[in-house]
């Protein structure tokens, strides 16, 4: 049955196609894949770019998903499903490792904390449920940013002004330094943060993924820096990875890794 609103149908087809790619693509590729006139594709892309659902990379003549599309695609996990499915896992993690942990979501250039589990006898943290903190300052935010397509990170942080003024304690105050930190995070396999959110505290974090392998949440363990050596931090990362895999399995039915 033919659509009664072809423009709406084609808009959704373009978004679905972009979501299926590992990186930005050309308008010609979109037109060919969807069997649409190039003029139609260019018009749809312009409207979606104006609304933030598509990012245009003019130097490369490519198009990728924009911030609004990313936020829309993960919107369902911002509410009860994420909190209800994640809370028992965070509780078990904290019982096992004896340190405080949290689960955060990426919302634009911020992370939003949706689950917070405090370990008995550990100091209070600033990461209360509902608190928003610039993502590039946090381990949980870096764990997600490192696994986003690079074009999406460029769209989020196009210039130095995109970085919060709260960053006076961190060396990450511009796109180049953020790229370097995310490169180190990818090479290491997990994110770290030392005193950028709260002096004397550190965090390690990993991301949970959706069925496409894209990050949907960051899980972090936070501790007093001087109390936890590198070997212990690697142990915490191993526990975090198991917890992240379990969360992905609960959210998206993905098989758990051994």
From TrEMBL:
- PROSITE patterns associated with the record: HTH_ICLR, ICLR_ED
Look up the signal peptide feature and give its range. Answer: none
Q: Which InterPro entries match?
A: ArsR-like_HTH, GAF-like_dom_sf, HTH_MetabolicPath_Reg, Tscrpt_reg_IclR_C, Tscrpt_reg_IclR_N, WH-like_DNA-bd_sf, WH_DNA-bd_sf
Q: Say if the entry is tagged with keyword Transcription.
A: yes
Q: Where is the IclR-ED domain?
A: 68-253
* Domain HTH iclR-type, chain residue ranges per copy: 5-67
What protein name does the entry list?
Answer: IclR family transcriptional regulator
Record's keyword terms, sorted: DNA-binding, Transcription, Transcription regulation
Q: Which CDD domains match?
A: HTH_ARSR (cd00090)
């Amino acid at each position: 049955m033919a659509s009664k609103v072809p423009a709406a149908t084609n808009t959704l087809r373009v978004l679905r196609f972009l979501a299926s790619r590992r990186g930005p693509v050309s308008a010609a590729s979109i037109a060919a894949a969807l069997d649409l006139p190039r003029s139609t594709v260019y018009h749809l892309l312009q409207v979606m770019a104006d609304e933030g659902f598509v990012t245009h990379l003019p130097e490369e003549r490519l198009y990728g998903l924009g911030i609004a599309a990313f936020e829309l695609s993960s919107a369902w996990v911002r509410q009860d499903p994420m909190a209800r499915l994640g809370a028992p896992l965070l509780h078990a993690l904290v019982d096992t490792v004896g340190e405080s942990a949290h689960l955060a979501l990426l919302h634009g250039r911020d992370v939003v904390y949706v689950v917070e589990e405090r370990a008995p006898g550990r100091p209070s943290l600033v990461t209360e449920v509902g608190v928003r903190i610039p993502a590039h300052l946090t381990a949980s935010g870096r764990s997600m940013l490192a696994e986003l397509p690079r074009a999406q990170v460029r769209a989020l942080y196009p210039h130095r002004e995109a970085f919060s003024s709260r960053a006076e304690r961190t060396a990450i105050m511009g796109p180049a330094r953020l790229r370097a930190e995310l490169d180190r995070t990818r090479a290491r396999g997990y994110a770290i943060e030392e005193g950028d959110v709260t002096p004397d505290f550190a965090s390690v974090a990993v991301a949970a993924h959706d069925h496409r392998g894209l990050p949907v949440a960051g899980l972090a363990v936070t501790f007093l820096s001087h109390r936890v050596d590198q070997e212990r931090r690697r142990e915490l990362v191993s526990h975090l990875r198991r917890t992240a895999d379990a969360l992905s399995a609960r959210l998206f039915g993905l098989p758990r890794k051994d």
